[in-house]
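Quarterly update from the structural biology core.
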Amino acid sequence: MDFTRRVLLKTALAGLVLPGRPAGAGVDPPPLLFGTTPVILDEQAEFLTRWRIYLETLLRRPVRFVQRGSYRDILVMLTGGKLDCAWLCGYPYVRMRDRLTLMAVPLYRGRPFYRAYLIVPAEDRATRSILDLKGRVFAFSDPDSNSGWLVPQGELKRAGEDTSRFFKKSFYTWGHRKVIEAVAAGLAQGGAVDGYIWDSLARLHPELTGATRVAWRSPEYGFPPIVARRGAAGVEDLGRALLGMTGTPPGRALLARLNLDGFVPGEDGLFAGIEANWRYLGT
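Predicted structure, tokenized:
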């Protein structure tokens, strides 16, 4: 059975109707604590409010989004029991898989995959790979990001380069959008970003991405998943709610704001490429 058929079967079995709260239940359920890193939306507070109300209506329990500036902060809170679930990158997921449960994987352009992009200033027409940026200034997004750190590190090591000495200078921006801004402003001559975010910003803010050029696209990797801490209560209902978003007009409107087509259950095989890079680099 191919991947697409397995996903369709799992989605059908998951169901779209969530169980209601038992009649006469006297104690309000605790809030579901949902961790996120900064998203690409301009009005993220307004969007998260709409998504929270949507999920609370289905889950019949309070939902709180907890935002932090790095994957590391979210991962520490998640594994430390201070969050129930989180939208995480595939790189920290494969490293901490024994303590996490895969809940849902977004569909982007109909598939649960994305690519890392190497971006350069728009006027740079010569760069074709990261190797062309030796001795330049480079922007990474986050040391726990697959597209924003692991992929470029793997490309350099495969070429036999000393990753600690290759660039004149490198720095973390702590956000994919901030990498794009740094390259657009000339603060870096290259950067590594999540291709989904660059593509989405190209729709929302073409004046920003238009100041950059995609010089190279990586192979496909499993899209950053939504995961839960093992043992967290009620997260199965969250998984069903996410899988069912395409079945309601409000859910489809929220997905459109995220530039996504829906969520599927996913499987660990989606992240095999990320795990292979991690093992190769020995990080």
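The CA atoms of residues 154 and 281 lie 7 Å apart.
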